[in-house]
Amino acid sequence: LIPLADMVNYAALPDDGAHKRNHQELFLKYHRITVNPHDAATGTAEIFADRDFASGSMIVESYGDNPNNMYLRYFGFVPETNPTDCRTVHFSLQQAKESRDQKAALLRDARIPAQVKHCFRLGEAVP
Fold this sequence. Notes:
Elements: E1 9-10, H1 23-30, E2 31-36, E3 39-47, E4 60-61, H2 68-75, E5 87-92, H3 100-109, E6 115-120
């Protein structure tokens, strides 16, 4: 545990294509933990601002590229704005019983995979 580290409130980074970036890399860029090589139980934790703040404003940070259900489950809230929220949908012919081979052949001819996993986001075109 790192005292006070969990006191910083969440706010999404500005939506400038955020869901196309690797938020875990961004998170690691602004959160550094160094373990003491002589005593693994001690070390330092540094948290850096992931955006500019005006004097007197509340300090907030992005918690990474997590869907809303994870925020609810592990943090106890659902963000009002979350550009990385999505619903993953799996499509597969494995469940189709009638004409499975015919459908598989059509998909193969069209060079479309028989199993698709895609993360759908509100307001984003379906691929």
